[in-house]
Automatic annotation (TrEMBL):
Protein's name according to its UniProt entry: Transcriptional regulatory protein TdiR
InterPro entries, per the entry: CheY-like_superfamily, Sig_transdc_resp-reg_C-effctor, Sig_transdc_resp-reg_receiver, Tscrpt_reg_LuxR_C, WH-like_DNA-bd_sf
Modified residues (4-aspartylphosphate): 67
Residues annotated as domain HTH luxR-type: 148-213
Upper classification of the organism: Bacteria, Pseudomonadati, Planctomycetota, Planctomycetia, Planctomycetales
One MF term in the entry's GO annotations: DNA binding
Record-level GO BP terms: phosphorelay signal transduction system; regulation of DNA-templated transcription
PROSITE patterns reported in the protein's UniProt record: HTH_LUXR_1, HTH_LUXR_2, RESPONSE_REGULATORY
Residue ranges occupied by any Response regulatory domain in the UniProt entry: 18-132
Keyword line: DNA-binding, Phosphoprotein, Transcription, Transcription regulation
Family matches, as SUPFAM superfamilies: C-terminal effector domain of the bipartite response regulators, CheY-like
SMART domains, sorted: HTH_LUXR, REC
Length: 221
């Protein structure tokens, strides 16, 4: 069942942002939505991945909290389906247990962050607010396509090569081996590239690159 909050947005925000919660557990959906509404965020909840996919508008300025373990469609399967449909926004993956391989797979699929269900409430709130700020910046960039292309054009050829390999999920050591350069050189190019594109981590980089170049096919493992 879908439920929508009419909570007032923070001052200074020109249009509403939404936090989507996708979890098959009713108690989890209700507790998370109560927490986020308490800090004046709009919330919509869904009990399954397919239900969410049938409702989402790709143009929505939002972020999503997705449970890893769900029947019918798992969190990583939903993330993969969103990527296939070229629907991109910050996704926070939620799990009851620490699972490093699943966390790594989620990040490679473009997840913004990975949290355990027993995390501190403030940690979750901070993560959601950071994700919404990033979503806002991406939407702003998308309305200024000329400026976006200027950012990419400001990269050197080597920085573009490093960017493409990092987005594929390669480590600095793997990038260095592929390009035949030192790891510290890769790290320097990577730092310069991320500074020019105004991103703070690999997840933000993946989102921006995909939004900038939406027609490029994403490789599936």
């Amino acid at each position: 069942m879908n439920s929508t909050s009419n909570a007032r947005q923070n001052e200074g925000i020109s249009s509403p942002q939404t936090v989507f919660i996708i979890d098959d557990n009713t108690d989890v959906r209700e507790s998370l939505s109560f927490l986020l509404r308490s800090v004046q965020l709009n919330v919509e909840t869904f009990s399954s991945g397919p239900e969410f996919l049938n409702s989402i508008d790709p143009r929505t300025d939002c972020c999503a909290i997705i449970d890893i373990l769900m029947p019918t469609m798992s969190g990583t399967e939903l993330l993969r389906e969103l990527k296939k449909k070229k629907i991109f926004f910050p996704v926070i993956m939620l799990t009851a247990h620490a699972d490093v391989p699943v966390a790594v797979e989620s990040m490679r699929l473009g997840a913004y962050h990975f949290l355990q269900k027993n995390c501190l409430e403030q940690e979750l709130i901070d993560c959601v607010q950071n994700a919404l700020r990033f979503s806002r910046s991406v939407h702003h960039d998308c309305r200024n396509e000329i400026e976006m292309h200027k950012l990419l054009e400001s990269l050197s050829n080597r920085e573009k090569q490093v960017m493409d390999l990092v987005v594929e999920g390669q480590t600095s050591r793997q990038v260095a081996e592929n390009l035949g350069i030192a790891v510290k050189t890769v790290d320097a190019h990577r730092a310069n590239m991320m500074k020019k594109l105004n991103v703070n981590n690999v997840a933000e980089l993946i989102h921006k690159v995909i939004m900038y170049r939406p027609d490029e096919d994403s490789s599936e493992s």
